[in-house]
Amino acid sequence: MGGLLKKILLVDLFQALWVTFRNQNPKYIYTEQYPTERPRIAERFRGAPRLNINPDTNETLCISCNLCALACPENLIVVTSVRNEQTRRKDLTTFTYDLSRCMFCGLCEDACPVDALELTQDFELASYTREGGIWESADARGGTSTDTVHVGGMWVQWGPDRRKEHQERGVHNCRALYRD
């Protein structure tokens, strides 16, 4: 009889509403104003990948060893290279990273012997197309330098001098590729 009376009077509903309204006190509410105020990111957060470049020579640090691609459990990284007969080492031709399926485990970063690949703290990776999640270096485009990257269907510069220009054009998801 007591259970039927509780169901009729909706006692459980009012108890749940009391818990909700009790926690609606303004002193307990914390709202981040996201676009204007950047959220604090944990120090060990793993976000967008970045292929580091040597500031002296403006070339990528990647030695085309393919260890990052072998370490990736999802097979998202494709590294292609060409043997340079003069220097007797491999030169990177393309570096493709598929972010659309990446789980940001960091195994590719750990496998790199020269710290060429790094997971940054950038978390803004949204794109309007599926192709926007596939990042590739522009080395295969007729011998262009390693400081351009294909992001979301567009080729963009990697340098800090081009950051403002790309942000004005609306290319926000390539911010992780810039090195300050």
Q: Termini, distance in Å?
A: 71 Å
Radius of gyration: 24 Å
Q: How are helices and strands ordered from N to C?
A: HHEHEEHEEEEH
CATH-scheme architecture: 2-Layer Sandwich
Number of strands: 7
By helix and strand content, what is the structural category?
alpha+beta
The helix content is: 10-25%
CATH topology: Alpha-Beta Plaits
Number of domains: 1
Assign the CATH class: Alpha Beta
Alpha plus pi helix count = 5
Strand content: 15-25%
Can you tell me the residue ranges where pLDDT is under 50 for at least 5 consecutive residues? Answer: 139-147, 150-163, 169-180
Strand order of the largest sheet: 2-3-5-6-7
Net shape: elongated
Mean pLDDT: 76
Largest sheet: 5 strands, antiparallel
Note down, in words, how this protein is organized.
By secondary structure, this protein is α+β, with helices and mostly antiparallel strands. It is 20% helix and 20% strand. The strands form two sheets. A five-stranded antiparallel β-sheet has the order 2-3-5-6-7. A two-stranded antiparallel ribbon has the order 1-4. A hairpin with a 2-residue loop joins strand 6 (148-151) and strand 7. The model is unreliable at 139-147, 150-163 and 169-180 (pLDDT under 50).
Summarize the structure.
The protein has 180 residues and is α+β, with helices and mostly antiparallel strands.
